[in-house]
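ok so for the tutorial part 2 we go from a plain amino acid sequence to predicted structure tokens. step 1 is just haveing the sequence, like this:
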Amino acid sequence: MISGPMTGSARAPGTRGYRPAGLVFLLSLLLSIAAFGGTRHAENRRRKSEFKELAARPAAAVQERIGLYLQEIESIGKFYAASHFVERREFRGFVQGSLSRRQAIDVLAWAPRLTQAERAAFEAATQKELGGSFRVVDLGENGRQVPAAARPTYYPVWYAEPAEESELPLGVDLESTPVYLEAFSKARDQHAIAATRPFVLTYNGENQVGVAVMLPIYYGDVLDSGPTAPNAHELYGVVVGLFRINDLVDEALESARARRARIRLYDAGPGKGRHLLYARPRLAGAGVNEEEVEEEASANGLGYSAAVEVADRRWVIECTPTAEYLAATASWTPWVVLGVGLLFTGLLTAYVVSVLGRAAWAGQLVAERTAELSETNTRLQDEIAERRRAEEALTARNRELESFVYTASHDLRTPLVSIEGFARLLEEEYADRLDTEGREYLGRVRANATNMNALLSDLLELSRVTRSGEPKERVAVGEVVAKALQELEPFIAESGAEVKAPEEFPTVSAGPTRLRQVFTNLISNALKFAREGAPPRVEIAWERLRDGYRFEIRDNGIGIPEEYREQIFDLFSRLKEKDVPGTGIGLAIVKRIVEGHGGKIGVESKVGEGSRFWFTLPEG
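step 2 — the prediction. this is what the tokens look like for a chain of 620 residues:
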């Protein structure tokens, strides 16, 4: 500070002498604004990241819940495929479990294929069974039922549960109802489950938005449909499920714990425009302007959108924050930074003005300001360190999740072993007391228990690969391949396969057990997916790369369609072109092993000619 009047050479500078002070002021102001903008940007990024994590939960919960509901429809389809004929009481008993598990199911129904020639006898038999006036009908205007017009085939609703006040009355022909016709036609023509456009249905006297899904069943799917059955590709009937969207989404969001997010669900096609299906009640309190809340969320980029697949239709779920969330996550840090920056600007400018005539003090003041900047830099470094610690904590949580998967898979095997053991004892001790159907059911129990045990074993193996890596050592690849081929010798002999391998292989740094697991999986896949009538041919090859080695397993099998080549390394991904034993986890394990060794894996394939799986390993 100036403690006395300036004299001599310390005279007050003129107008030009204040230019350095002006430059200091302008520069400090720009830095303050930049610091404010940077801090605000960082805070917005933090809020975006946190809200995205919050909003992703309800989106995932809705998708998972829809998948569970579709599984119920598919289970009914499998029930029909495993049965000679399903009676009304059997249908009612089977779907009771689905109705009790899934509260948003409005109705589950079965509509068989019926020809014009069969119609009269079908109506008479059903009237006798139900003791009513059943008939095949069309839905006219305003939902009025009229006798169905004559046409070659009908698909009347024959079974429907619950039957009381059903949105699908018995006898209604699905082909005559506009709301069902589009989805019915898609399901029939594409041989796949299809969903209707959303429509209004009545539940407990109130209107709700609903959606119907249809699963086609063909004569070729039905167990022993008989020598007089139509062509296997002819439609046998349709499983129909009506879901109440509001109840379904509420059920999904109950476990998502996203109370501070505003949820909107839209139907996005196929078709033009978007249609609102579900809107979660707004949570703003009294005196809160919803438009201002929306504008603030939009200005800060706080929004989340995700696609939800419903059979062949696509819904879109959008999440925006509530006023409560915006208030709870708002930060004053940018404004504090700006205030401190402006204060700093004013003080620095005043200081520069005060010392223009006192050059001797300049060095000391510069040193003080440099120290302040150094302190600021230290704080920034501390913040960076804090963010790194947060990333390490997230990594630790991921490890805990993998440990949970391992423990859960391990613990589930104990009851499975018990189920399989008791089923075997039941078969050995009481097989002669069971009828054919009972022995068949018992066989299914054992087969399913075996399949689930294999699935859990693969999940445990996947978890082991992820959680603990095998110590690396110098491994002769030729010995590893020889052990893999020896392990697969029975399979090779049974399939009549020809396996070629070079006489010499390189030596790499790897875990020998994991490397043998890679070759065993890839070679066994080549044997399993062989073409009908063509003996399997498998060739193992390798080549030297600049920084490692590339290994290939080639086969002459059925090949992999292009659209599946990116998916086959995902969990539970399996080719549908050929039904072979397996869990769909093997290639996922192979990928994790290769990547854990610092390598890459891929596939080249041509349908009908074969595939070439390759992977690389570093030299060191």
